[in-house]
Amino acid sequence: MTRSFYITTPIYYVNGAPHIGHAYTSIAADVMARWKRLQGFEVFFLTGTDEHGQKVEKAAADAGLDPQSFVDKIAADFKDMARVMGISYDDFIRTTEERHKVSCAELWKRIAAAGDIYLGHYEGWYAVRDEAFYDESELTTRPDGTKVAPSGAPVEWVREPSYFFRLSAWQDRLLQFYEEHPDFIAPSSRRNEVMSFVRGGLLDLSISRTTFNWGIPVPDAPGHVMYVWLDALNNYVTACGFPDPAAPRWHYWPADLHFVGKDIIRFHAVYWPAFLMAAGLPVPKRVTSNGWWVVDGEKMSKSLGNVIEPRKLVDTFGLDQIRYFLMREKPFGADGSISHQAIISRINVELANDLGNLAQRTLSLVARNCGGQRPARGAATEDDTALLAAAQALPEALDPHMDRQTFHEALEEVWKVIRAANGYVDRQAPWALNKTDKARMGDVLRVLLDTLRAVATVLQPFMPDSMSRMLDQLGVAPDRRTLDALSLPLEDGEALPPPQGVFPRYVEPAA
Ligand code: MSP
Q1: What total of structural domains would you count in the chain?
Q2: For residues 193 and 204, what is the distance between their CA atoms, to the nearest angstrom?
Q3: What is the pLDDT of residues 292-304, one digit of tens each?
Q4: Does the pTM of the predicted model rise above 0.85?
Q5: Are 228 and 365 part of one and the same domain?
Q6: Residue 126 sits in the same domain as residue 255
Q7: How far apart are CA 358 and CA 350, in angstroms?
Q8: Are residues 366 and 255 both part of a single domain?
Q9: What is the best residue among 100, 216, 292 to mutate for testing ligand 1's pocket, by most ligand atoms within 8 Å of CB?
Q10: 3-class DSSP state for residue 488?
Q11: What is the CATH number of the domain that holds 8?
């Protein structure tokens, strides 16, 4: 039976245009989805937009539009970003869709039926930018007297009737759950942070708002709309067809992997499992959190206005180049900064020089000296065997890194083989063998072709388009591009298409 794997991105607030931070989380989830497909999993990959709440309502008002027309416009922009970034999602959910309203109403009713919702009165601090409630003790006061949340978001005092979720009752069960599932939160620094937050004591959570109405109505409670985070988190079960147990996608639940930014780990690792447990639903297997891309030391965000537009980067450098840079430049869970120079250096050194030249040198020697045909495998020397063994072992070498989302280390494993292959070319000098030992030249080029095949196969999730072109040039049929297919040898003597460079060097345009 095919094993299924359910992966999600956060659903993005539609309060402004997408930026590279959003693209990053989506690309990481996409790399994972493509990797799992290469391994033969039946993948369900979900992304979408978070369209309710005060922040979005305010952005619509600022734009002079009614909320629905505003969110339609920005959701289309996020969908376009996913297209431009090569995100291979299976479903794009919008929280203003009817299926989601039905699902949220049912989730609410189940939690209420379990006795975990009560009516009360909220009085306290709220940050619209984070759509989050804060305790006084979490705030800091700026020199001008304004109070801000730990994220730097301004807070306002809110007083309103509200329904509450009995979060305090879930503290022990949550702690027990984290103990029993040590891989639930990644990386471990975030796990420790979440556990100490929960150990510190949980307050009941306000889950309805009454001072605006851009949200999903609370069942049988006129004037109340659901707190946007309850609505938003529930998107992950809506997309599986909740509440219909016969829905074709219901078997995907619980999710295998939620990708989230470190800013929203608390919602996914504390509130979300508590809501699900209260509703009697299974809890996701893992929440993995990425660090931030920062510009001049500050998190890039729509609200701060210091954003880098993903489409501009792609136009300047190319999509696969940007996907590679984002996955390679910093450890997934850590913060890192983007700079023009750092992108150029990754492109010119690792893509154009290390990998691009290796492929180009090999393929053009085959075209020139082997009549454009794949040479047969000859008797292997020690040097040949060592390189081929390292190349063949790539799927196993990458897998633990992919499972832990240490993508930069997965790429480092591939580059170890690429660097070894470059050392091998220099030692074997196939261009010189053309004059002295044509048979050996063929053997060497075949070792290189097989190595490149393994490299291009495992790199497909990171750089789908370039690797597909490289595999075309290596004459690997589309149905031979899975990890398993690597053990099937390619035919000797097959004619290969004329070589074409895959990774040009980036040259700064003249000013
Ligand atoms: N709508 C909520 C998520 C609800 S999920 C049920 C939300 N949306 S968001 O648009 O503000 O941000 C979503 C995600 O974008 C962040 O969690 C993070 O993954 C990503 N990023 C936003 N800014 C980022 C950076 N500057 N750097 C890296 N990732 C960033 O929160």
Answers
A1: 2
A2: 19
A3: 998 777 777 766 7
A4: yes
A5: no
A6: yes
A7: 11
A8: no
A9: 292
A10: coil
A11: 3.40.50.620
